Amino acid sequence: LDQMSETAAFPFPALSAFADGPLADAASWAWDSLDRDIATMPEGLRPFAESNDWKNALVLPVSVRDQMPRVLASWLRNLVAGSALYYVLGLVWCALIYGCFRSRIFPKGGVPTLSAQLAQIWVSQKALVMYTLMPTIGEWLAENGLSRCYYSIEEIGGIVPYLAWTALYLFLIEFCVYWVHRALHHPLIKWLHADHHIYNTGDSLSPWAGLAFHPVDGMMQASPYVFLLVLIPVHFWTFMVMLFATAMWTTNIHDTLVGKTEPVMGSAYHTLHHTDWVYNYGQYFIFFDWLFGTLLVPEYPKLGLSLQGSWAEQDAAEAKAKAKAE
Description:
With about 325 residues, the chain is mainly α. Helices cover about 60% and strands about 0% of the residues.
């Protein structure tokens, strides 16, 4: 009977050595880390957890927060906040370029179709469920002491070290995102990026396309922001602001507006990335495209117009000339 009882309690005797060993300890620590009591945390980690709780309270009612561990509440808060940011930015940007300034930017047409915009919104909203794991992982790393994040600028020695480390962080992010993006065009995994590159024609790109990725694709491109936290001292709030600023930036670079932005990778550059595929992989800057020979400089027809609007004007002029010749 005793033998039967032991077998029933643990049906895999070969694994019984792990039941109370290091793996069990690691599993217990990982489980506890999802909702650690702030009062029991080391003093240096409490500000991270307290700030995460404060952000959760800004977005989620207490009745929701009390039903889940902190890390799950943080993910839900990031999902709600990220979705709100996506819709507010998209609506404002579309109202400006397709509404208020439509006659100037798209005088001869070229506005993306409504069906294309709705398709981009649908793809983006599905993917946001996964994208928002990235800031959540960063917050979890910080409050569990697994990153080199610091909470106060004084901890790093003042404003000069803060600016130096932040500049290095941004430089390495740019380098990593360039190569991750370029790798996503490799034949072995370009199917991941194909969801985003169905928007390659002049009348299909819109601000809504900025987050219209396969979820794994979007997480890969956001991953340098998170995993560099393990290597480089990064101010906690700077990390959060920079990661969410990416959502604002990606909205901008998909609007196809024309403007000389060098050395910044403006929307004219990124539009050419969509139409030509093998150029302009950078995120914020053109430096690494220039360094590695993948830079394609746009021709600026008229400042203030979009490339879509310019192409529509060219098509209209060509059609007019053809009709006149006939």
